[in-house]
Amino acid sequence: MAAETHVFQTKVSKLLKLLANSLYSNKEVFLRELVSNASDAIDKLRFAAIAKPELLGSDPVFSIRISADKEAGTLTVSDNGIGMTLDEANEHLGTIAQSGTEDFLEHLSADEAKNAQQIGQFGVGFYSSFIVADRVTVVSRAATAGENEAVRWESDGSGTFTSELTTRASRGTDVILHLRDEDKNFLDPWTLRETITKYSDHISTPVYLLEEKPAEEGKTPDKDWVQVNDAKALWTLPPKEVTDDQYKEFYKHLTHDWEDPLCWAHNRVEGDLEYTSLLYCPSAAPYDLYNRDLQKGLKLFVERVFIMDRADAFLPNYLRFIKGLVDTNDLPLNVSRELLQESRVAAKLKKALTRRALDMFAKLADDKDAKEKYGVFWTQFGRVLKEGIVEDPDNRKAILGLLRFATTKAGASDITVSLADYVSRMPEGQKNIYYVIANTPEAAEGSPYLEGLKKKGVEVLLLWERIDEWMMGALTEFEGHKFIPATAADLELEGVKSKTDEAEKPSETSKEEDDKAVARFKAALGEKVADVRISDRLVDSAACVVGQHDQMLTEQMRRMLEAAGQTVPEEKYTLEVNLESPLVKKALKENDPTRFSEWADVILDQALLSEQGSLKDPAGFVKRLNALLLS
Ligand SMILES: Nc1ncnc2c1ncn2[C@@H]1O[C@H](COP(=O)(O)OP(=O)(O)OP(=O)(O)O)[C@@H](O)[C@H]1O
């Protein structure tokens, strides 16, 4: 069969171009990727051989072998794993399976250095060979294929590849890199040994390097395969024996991420349920965190045998960003995805691993030296974690402890306040936790509803993310303190003693005058409002609208329901007026009932505008306002 030429999938070509144009400070990662692929291929065969031991044939001892040929300028990574057929090579080495990569490639920025850094998130995997090679040849024979059914694949990484049938004496894969002149340092025995040792330290398969033996005088040196790792899977070691650097390297091996993880938790549990878990939190959220096709889940091992990738039965959806593995003796070796869905053991593991993950974050939050790291965690994953408040009532308490907020005291740009911080600095007499939800940080911070609370020294949580409405709807209390929106009709502030209270100015008007003012607004607005009353929450603003906090729909929720095609009932608000406001005072000086009505309408519309950001009849509002401005 003559070699056939194929064109790479468009996104592969884009990726290869990007790789060629990006200068890597750590070019050597290509070796990690190739060693990881070789180890994955061996893991897959080990698993397949449980049901079909004959696949191992006469070659039952697994190994990865790396050799350099200085004369030919090539570096070869070989394994005796599952191998590939011709069709598999065409498919797997010509396409990218991950959904997020497409989005990423479409949104490349002009900043190449940044792109190069981010690209690692997508598991460039095999294609990273082209960082150092101007030609790559793969010779592979699948474990199920005959000697003459091997495949030879080749590409210079410039848009096409060729493939054809060839022969290979035994199953497995050779990846042969024809190194660029400037990257031939990887053929140097010392560099190679150092790099390989670093990337194979934790791998459960033995990795051998072909090294020259010291030659006897006058003789050409002999070469020998030297094992460079101890071939013990990292997670089987006692945590105390594993260094931070080893954990970091292992994370990169598992995930193909090029960045260090933010934190990890390694646990070996014996007893009723026996398992070892190694959970990692990445340092950046993947592009497709909110994409339904996100590839999530842990690697599953049973009795140290790799069973499947991305097993999503072990963590809840709101922890979908966690990477890692679980190894257990309590599941059968032939467990399938379907069986996992119904397995009681899997359900128990999910419960345990969820707690482990939340503990890992709690530790990070408590670590005084890791303040910055927790900030990164919250910025990257806080929004997803909030889903857990609604989805996972059993762990709500633990998740509540992890939440961080912007507040009126910290400011909208400082999202670092925990609920415990909030409670610890509540002024004397404050019983509840106050919050406001708006569409933007600015709108939250500038909300008129906060004026009185601020004046009393009461801190308010500022919220503006879409998920917040949903989350706060599910929350009732934290350590006995109720959550109350700043827009609630009754803020239950009795008993809050603040310095400003004592210095409160006596009202300039009498009770009768106040009642009369309220009655005038009521008469002027009629059916447009549920009620009118004097506000004790406003300081500068003229008025605001309030609803019962357990009944009121915020504007965000209203829009969400409307977008979902639901008819949302008209809501009548209570108008609260600030009798100390110069605008209200001016309005009350108007004796003509028609003109006072216009004033009342403008004041109500202003209040609605501040609350909702829009009005039903904006043109009418502008007309009335202009008439008053001109009078
Ligand atoms: N040494 C190998 N033996 C057998 N198959 C291989 C080998 N190397 C690569 N492959 C096949 O090629 C596919 C693509 O490899 P690549 O490294 O690009 O991505 P991946 O490993 O699937 O993804 P990720 O890098 O995110 O894990 C693999 O999934 C595997 O099917």
Short description:
The protein has 631 residues and is α+β, with helices and mostly antiparallel strands.
Question: What can you tell me about this protein's structure?
Answer:
Its main location: cytoplasm. Residues 26-183 form the Histidine kinase/HSP90-like ATPase domain. Belongs to the heat shock protein 90 family. Residues 1-337 are annotated as: A. The protein is α+β, with helices and mostly antiparallel strands and 631 residues long. It has 21 helices and 22 strands. Strand 10 and strand 11 form a beta hairpin. Helix 2 crosses helix 6, helix 9 (344-366) runs parallel beside helix 11 and helix 10 (371-391) packs across helix 15 (466-474). The longest helix has 23 residues, at 29-51. Bound molecules: adenosine-5'-triphosphate. The site of adenosine-5'-triphosphate has 16 residues, from helix 2.
Task: Please outline the helices and strands.
Blueprint: E1 4-7, H1 10-21, H2 29-51, E2 64-69, E3 74-79, H3 86-92, H4 99-106, H5 112-119, E4 133-141, E5 150-155, E6 160-166, E7 172-179, H6 189-200, E8 207-212, E9 223-227, H7 244-255, E10 263-269, E11 275-281, E12 298-302, E13 305-311, E14 323-328, H8 337-342, H9 344-366, H10 371-391, H11 396-402, E15 406-407, H12 419-424, E16 433-437, H13 441-445, H14 451-455, E17 460-463, H15 466-474, E18 477-478, E19 481-485, H16 499-502, H17 511-525, E20 531-534, E21 543-546, H18 555-563, E22 574-577, H19 582-588, H20 593-612, H21 618-630
Parallel strand pairs: 2-8, 12-14, 16-17, 16-19, 20-22
Antiparallel strand pairs: 1-6, 2-3, 3-7, 4-5, 4-7, 5-6, 8-9, 10-11, 11-14, 12-13, 15-17, 18-19, 21-22
Helix pairs in contact: 2-6, 9-11, 10-15, 20-21
The protein binds adenosine-5'-triphosphate.
The site of adenosine-5'-triphosphate has 16 residues, from helix 2.
